[in-house]
What does this fold into?
Amino acid sequence: MKTQDITTSSRYAKDRAETLRNRANLATNRNLLVWYQQLYREQFRDLGSIDGLNVLEIGSGVSPLHLFYPSVLTSDVLDLDYVDYVFDCHEIDKIQAIADGSLDAITLTNVVHHLKRPIEFFRKAAAKLKKGGVIIAAEPYFSLLSTFIYKHFHPEPVDFSIEQPELKEVTGPLSSANGPLAWLIFARPKWRKALEEDFEFETGFFRPFSALAYFVTGGISRRIPIPNALYRLFFPVDLWLSRLFPRIFASFFIITLTRK
It folds into this structure.
């Protein structure tokens, strides 16, 4: 085996172990589960009941989506025994088990900024959607508050200077990232124009979601011991601030792309 193959295999093994560890941590963080539950409600608000819909999640390794919506099909690039499909989402067009034009929705949470070529993924994923089907993605939003946090207190790189809408280097599914990648794709007209052939999306495409609510849970790898009852009171205030003053407070956004 080549040295490069060994290195890549080692990184994927490390990412798999981290995924399982993070999944276990998340399952015991009640406040973070509240945050995710509210996020999913917001993501699916226009779909009504999704029990009768064909919905696929990309990047299900750590995600708790299946806890709240058991009918959703799960997938990941890592070989995990609790997901329905294992594949690289850049090659979703080659997955015969998911028929073209069969999906009502594809959902991704904090996944796009880990992708080597996000626009390529979006365009290939379009073929799997029914006409009028949607891709719903939740990603970091870069406000005054969140930019400071993401730059100084978050482990993932933050690079606004990229010249192409892709990652410069890929070392593993978790270890490769650029926090503002998705935000830049939809903020820069030239980049988002590449998606307009296949999708329609709102002019006000950034739907802000929460300010400090994610961070005060401790996130996936930590836990801050705030009483759950207090957190539930804090969350709607935090959400309100992110929507009223997004450029100051918002830390995440939701984007819905509708298949033409």
Notes: The longest strand covers residues 129-140.
